[in-house]
Design a protein that fits this description.
Elements lengths: L7 H17 L5 H38 L1 H37 L23 H7 L13 H16 L4 H5 L21 H6 L4 H28 L13 E5 L3 E3 L3 E8 L9 E4 L2 E2 L6 E2 L9 E4 L2 E7 L4 E12 L5 E13 L4 E4 L5 E2 L4 E6 L8 E5 L2 E5 L5 E6 L3 E11 L2 E4 L4 E6 L5 E3 L5 E4 L1 H6 L4 E3 L10 E11 L2 E8 L5 H8 L6 E10 L5 E3 L3 E5 L1
Parallel strand pairs: 2-10, 12-19, 21-27
Antiparallel strand pairs: 1-3, 3-8, 4-9, 5-6, 7-8, 9-10, 11-13, 13-16, 14-17, 15-16, 17-18, 17-19, 20-22, 23-24, 23-25, 25-26, 25-27
Helix pairs in contact: 1-2, 2-3, 2-8, 3-5, 3-8, 5-8
């Protein structure tokens, strides 16, 4: 069966895996760790191949079910149970790998990006301690819990028991499941190693992740063995190739005006030497079995290659587009068998939306938060850009920070990645960029008027305040001139910074009633890098 005969690629990977695992006991060099990364990547590719192979097998069950539901359904239902169990265990191991990487790298879960989950980008590949603590705990004291090797072993054994329970004794005898969790033999020193310790104790993170990926390969391989065996019980049908249901595989079900909607339309399990006949039109179910309304039949936009039909149409208008039709194919007995199909796709105009999260205008020199999105396009596929401003990503989907460098109008546009082709998402959206407003100079929150000398002396200095401005930004007074009326004379003093000097405060405290105090030539430094001249303040001592 499939699990007993490995492909040459898998044999090579398994051999390298065994050699590297043996080398762990001798020396963990950087080269060995990188070799584990390479092996892990290869096994991940193999897992994807297993997954695609299994998907094809499940499709064959559905095709066969359309021919003889009564006989095929019991086997198909068992195959779906196998799929559910395999997906559940595979996903748990995926979560375990992510948890190990995040904990070892000390990355909070809410800050984990796609790159942090790739073993190639992990910096702590050689870390023994964290993986051992999570999976094993202290030596000699097995640790139990959701993310432990003990729990993983239980889940693997349950998975084997569940999928094998779906087999008859005769079918079991022909299977060899590659998920061994037995404890290793007793060592020469009399110690009794466990499966947990043998696989995960004092092993660097790179090797641990690779071991877990290989277990995932064994899970998919076991899944493949079981469903192949189940399908072997139902493959004695008129159609001996991958039989037989209509299939529509669109490149995308959400496209933009002016783009082409493309889909593969075929009978699953086709004969490459004989093309089917594909017609499009309105299906009529009024007589029980579906048929095509003759007046609606058309074949425009359909081409054939290797037994499969290719449908292509240029989208001209927006909205949901539905289509249907019939696939006709000849059975080995020379009988024309027809299969109805239905599909739909949505057409939309490229609709870039850019919303300023804080204000409707942008300000030079400030971090202006914005949200950029295109309906139907994943955030990670968008590549926004803007001239006259620096644009960089912030935390959150579609969140960006824009920092303009000049006043006037700027345009924010975006392109999206569609299968490697960058496409414009419509015209740029215009935003107005302004300079920050000039703050108001105040003393004791006043801009002038009558004030007691005690209150004024205690004020401490001149403060620039941003009034009615949504950004939490602060300016600092660079210098100012204070002029006090002393014995009829106006005495000016130049002050650096915004605070009163000790001498100024003492002089104010001795001023008589009716004396004038002028704050003039107040200069303030703003966060946008400019220096502004602020308003003057005139007080009369009461």
């Amino acid at each position: 069966m499939g699990g007993e005969v490995l492909s040459p690629r898998m044999k090579m990977i398994s051999m390298m895996y065994l050699v590297l695992t043996a080398l762990l006991a001798m020396n963990v060099s950087k080269d060995i760790l990188e070799a584990f990364v390479t092996i892990n990547t290869s096994i991940e590719a193999t897992n994807e191949n297993f997954n695609e192979k299994n998907k094809a097998l499940y499709a064959r069950f559905l095709a066969a079910q359309t021919q003889d539901a009564e006989k095929v359904t019991p086997y198909k239902d068992k195959a779906w149970e196998v799929k559910d169990h395999a997906n559940e265990l595979f996903a748990h191991i995926d979560s375990l790998k992510s948890y190990l990487i995040l904990e070892t790298e000390k990355i909070p879960e809410d800050q984990a990006g796609r790159d942090t989950m790739h073993l190639h980008d992990v910096s702590a590949k050689d870390d023994y301690n964290v993986p051992t603590y999570i999976l094993i705990g202290d030596a000699g004291s097995p640790k139990k819990g959701q993310w432990t090797a003990h729990d993983l072993k239980i889940k693997i054994n349950k998975y084997k028991d569940k999928i094998l329970s779906l087999m008859t004794p005769e079918m079991k005898a022909e299977l060899k499941i590659m998920l061994n969790t037995d404890d290793p033999p007793t060592k020469s020193d009399g110690s009794n190693p466990t499966w947990d310790n043998d696989n995960f104790y004092n092993i660097p993170l790179a090797a641990v992740i690779t071991i877990l990926t290989k277990i995932q390969a064994d899970v998919r391989n076991a899944e493949s063995d079981i469903i192949e065996k189940l399908f072997s019980e139902v493959k004695k049908y008129d159609f001996t190739f991958d039989t037989l249901a209509a299939r529509i595989i669109p490149k995308s079900s959400y496209i933009f005006v002016g783009e082409a909607y493309e889909a593969e339309i075929f009978v699953a399990g086709f004969n490459t030497t004989r093309d089917p006949v594909i017609q499009m039109g309105e299906l009529d179910y009024s007589n029980g079995d579906p048929s095509l309304v003759a007046s609606t039949i058309k074949t425009d936009g359909i081409s054939y290659e290797n037994g499969a039909g290719h449908f292509k149409v240029i989208a001209k208008t927006e909205g949901e587009k539905k289509y249907s039709g019939m696939i006709s194919i000849m059975s080995p007995q020379g009988k024309i068998v027809k299969y109805p199909y239905e599909g739909s796709y949505t057409v939309a105009r490229p609709s870039l939306t850019v919303s300023a999260d804080q204000m409707n205008v942008f300000y030079i020199g400030l971090d202006n938060p914005i949200t950029i999105a295109v309906p139907g396009v994943a955030h990670e596929k968008l590549k926004p850009r803007c001239s006259g401003a620096t644009l960089y990503k912030a935390i959150g989907k579609g969140k960006y920070i824009i920092k303009p460098t000049r006043a006037g109008d700027i345009f924010i546009s975006a392109k999206a990645d569609f299968n490697g082709e960058m496409k414009s998402m419509g015209p740029g959206i215009k935003f107005r960029v302004k300079r920050m407003p000039t703050p108001i100079a105040k003393v004791m929150n006043m801009t002038g008027g009558r004030i007691s000398k005690k209150t004024l002396a205690a004020a401490g200095g001149v403060i620039p305040l941003m009034e009615n401005f949504d950004f939490n930004v602060y300016s600092t007074v660079k210098s100012y001139k204070i002029t006090m009326e002393i014995e009829g004379d106006l005495v000016p003093v130049r002050v650096t910074g915004g605070r009163f000097t000790e001498k100024t405060a003492k002089t104010i405290s001795r001023l008589p009633s009716g004396a004038k105090v002028f704050f003039e030539n107040i200069k303030a430094d703003l966060p946008d890098g400019t220096t502004r001249m602020l308003n003057s303040i005139i007080f009369t001592i009461r």
